Amino acid sequence: MTSFYEKSIKDTELGPYFTHELGDDITDQDWIDHIELLADFWLAKILGEDTYYGNFVGAHVKMPRIKESSFIQWLHLFSETTDEVYTPDVAKIFKKRAGQLMQEFKTSKKKI
Ligand code: HEM
Known about the structure:
mainly alpha; binds protoporphyrin IX containing FE; 70% helix
């Protein structure tokens, strides 16, 4: 998770969205809370644990509209990170789920 956000902050496409909401210092409390929340989110989505009950699409509504090219870059960086961190079998599960959730995000955002 931390590795993904370290890359995202530095990324010219994704960086501004994150630094606008959470600042550019990944050791700040806002970032620590965000990374913990996202770890719980993925625990829920991959292992079915009772760790996340938020509305993840709704949480992005207050942010500037996310461009299609940013979504593509998000998935690219996420996939690249899972390949670095996990074994191929586990990385495959994360990448598949990330693609599905991103699709879910894009479809429901249109309805908001
Ligand atoms: C280009 C794409 C994306 C950008 C730039 C982005 C950016 C952000 C930012 C800045 C926040 C923090 C909002 C805040 O607390 O102030 C956030 C929250 C979150 N994002 Fe994303 N996001 C993207 C895509 C996604 C996708 C595809 C997923 C799911 C797979 C996701 C899952 C989450 C979750 C779970 C939260 C926390 C929601 C909560 O507060 O309960 N994001 N995102």
